[in-house]
Amino acid sequence: MGSGPDSGTPVPPSVGPEPAIAVQHLVKRYGDFVAVNDVSFSVRKGEIFGIIGPNGAGKTTTVECISGLRVPDSGQVFIDGLSPRKDRQKIREFVGVQLQEGALPPRITVGEAVGLFAAFYRNPLVPDHLLDLLGIARLKNKEFRKLSGGEKQRLSIALALIGNPRVAILDELTTGLDPEARRDTWDLIEQIRERGVTVILVTHFMDEAERLCDRLALIDHGVVRALDTPEAIAARAGGFRVRFVPSAPLDDATLRAIPGVEAIERKDRYITVTGTGDLATAVLDALTKSGIHISELESRKGNLDDAFVKLTRTPGSKERDSA
Amino acid sequence: MTSDVRPSRTPDRRRGAFAELLRVQWHLALRQRYIFTGLGLPTGLLVVFWGIGLLNPGQVAGSGLTILELWTPTILVVSYIAIGMLGVPATFARDREIGWLRRVSTTPIPPSRLLAAQLLLNLIVAAVATAFLLVVAVVFFGAPLTVGIEFVGVALLAIAEMFSLGLVVAAIAPSQQAAEYMAGGLVFPLMFLSGLWVQPVQVGGPLATIMYYSPTGAAVRALLYSVFNATPPYTTIVTMAVYSVLFTFLAVRYFRWE
Fold first, then answer.
1. Which of A89, A95, B31, B229 is the most buried (most CB within 10 A)?
2. With the CA atoms of B239, B241, B246 and B251 taken in that order, what torsion angle do they form, in degrees rounded to the nearest 10?
């Protein structure tokens, strides 16, 4: 209690060292189906922590156990040292939740919904300010049923934030939004981070995870496959990818003979080779020697998308990290 | 800086949340218009039976009562049926179906508070409907009614009966649509048993007995005594109490928040 760090060690205001959320050996079954199978990770204060994974991977179940909406079969969750089940009342005061499928009464207006939720919390934000910040102040008198998908999403985010939470859990934040609305929403999340809010973000968009998250847990079949920064996970995709259109048909054997080539994919006219080293030059040299011209050449480093595909498609991959 | 907030909510805050819930529910109810059904339907019926009474003066089936006097309790109960069956069940089933209750359950306010606000609001509407009908019957149509404390007790019991039946529907209906069908299916038998089409004194025999021991028939009979400031037969009170307890038990037994 009394032996905490003194003012001698300055702590950056945004990301603190102490965990805001700790998830330990979480297990949740629905009948015979194991939705979450021994998931552990911790989220630091002020961090934007992403949970990525394919559909049905157990992402939503995991965050529902964190927010106290579901009771885990075993394992533990702590938010600021409190249990979502035992201290549910306290936790609901400072954890804001955005649900994946959470509709409002069709005829409630934006202003009514936000005002109502503001009345639920002890230290809420000022509704008008929040609506301004989210760019939906002009919708104040519009009924929920008349909102567009993007407007509903913003309202849903507003409801998650109106209580001035220390922790925000956002599930499928930008699903159904057009590209511009998505970018606006990302800006908004970055503003939330600046307020020092710890954010758990569930997403299946890799660009979103790469842009926003400080760290990621990649969950597949209820298991954590990777737990690291987006850059570090992307690096697991390994090496480079080179995509091109050959002037004549090419068989796999010719491609495999090129030094550094590890994998070959074909789609329509395109061939993509994955591998290590100076792959583009190697491919270009080898094919020029065989008298084949290539066009539309593209070369890039492996990214989070590639890592995601690699980590979730490898059968039986049980690679696990711990926090 | 991040010192912990006090764990308990101040009473003021809780009242503020509930008042806001009531206010929003009230606005939503106005937009859904069922409140006008709860008030308008019985008012319309009162006018209709007043008209029928003008065309058929005198007592009904030797009961010593005019048509308007005899039907006023029935119209009160019809109003409770409309409010209890059209208001709470479909709204609550919808709020559960669309995930609104679940959404609310992530806030410091439990969804039970939402239900409490809905019930209180409908209770207020029922009280307003009752007062309005009595005033119209007495002042405009000259019915010689004198209500006392017994009337208030009987009316509350009748309201409790209809609201708890509404909650049974809210509990077991899987969706808003189902709640509407179930409530709609109950409304007509309940209205029939309340004597809207024919009063038990007119039919007599086993049908009258069935009506007397039905949820709405018992309520009408008890109200009929109490609008003349008389003590209702205890069987009517016991019948209403038994139904209220039974409905409440079923509603609690099968209740689902998600």
1. A95
2. 140
Domain ranges of chain A: 19-234, 239-301
Asked if B99's CB is within 8 angstroms of A102's CB, the reply is: yes
The token duo for A176 is 């159904």
Q: Which of A92, A116, A140, A197 is the mutation pick for testing B, counting most B CBs within 10 A?
A: A116
Cα–Cα distance between A274 and A307 in angstroms, integer? 12
Beta-carbon pairs below 8 A across chains A and B: 73
**Interchain proximity A105–B100, CB inside 8 Å:** yes
The residue with tokens 């005198």 is B58
Query: Could you give the CA distance from residue A275 to residue A241 in angstroms, rounded to a whole number?
Result: 7
Q: Which amino acid is at B13?
A: R
Q: In degrees to the nearest 10, what's the CA dihedral of B18, B23, B29, B35?
A: 100
Closest-CA distance, B184 to chain A, in angstroms, reads 21
Structure tokens at B24: 């929003």
Residue type, B79: S
Please judge whether A101 and B99 are an interchain contact, meaning their C-beta atoms are less than 8 angstroms apart: yes
In terms of DSSP bridges, do strands A270-275 and A261-267 run parallel, antiparallel, or are they unpaired? antiparallel
CATH number of A239-301: 3.30.70.100
Residue of B nearest to A108 (CA): B28
CATH T-level assignment (fold) for domain A19-234: Rossmann fold (3.40.50)
Q: Tell me, yes or no, if B5 comes closer than 8 A to chain A by beta carbon.
A: yes
The percent of residues in chain B predicted with pLDDT above 90, rounded, is 59
As for the ipTM of the complex, it is: 0.83
- Cβ–Cβ gap B7/A90 under 8 Å: yes
Distance from CA of B168 to the nearest CA of A (A): 21
Distances (CA, A) of B148 to A254, B136, B144, B232, B239: 101, 17, 13, 12, 21
Q: What are the angstrom distances between the C-alpha of A97 and each of A5, A33, A137, A189, A199? A: 31, 26, 21, 14, 10
- Which residue is closest to B1 within chain A, CA to CA? A13
Nearest-angstrom CA–CA distance, A135 and A155: 10
| pLDDT on residue B13 | 54
- The tokens for A180 are 């511009």
A95 contacts B106? CB cut-off 8 A: yes
Rounded-to-10 torsion of CA B152, B154, B156, B159 = -140
Q: Report the predicted TM-score, pTM, of the whole model to 2 decimal places.
A: 0.79
Q: Are A114 and A162 a contacting pair, CB within 8 Å?
A: yes
pLDDT digits 0-9 by tens, A122-165: 989 899 988 988 888 999 999 999 998 888 888 998 999 999 99
* Secondary structure (DSSP) of A125-136: PPHHHHHHHTT-
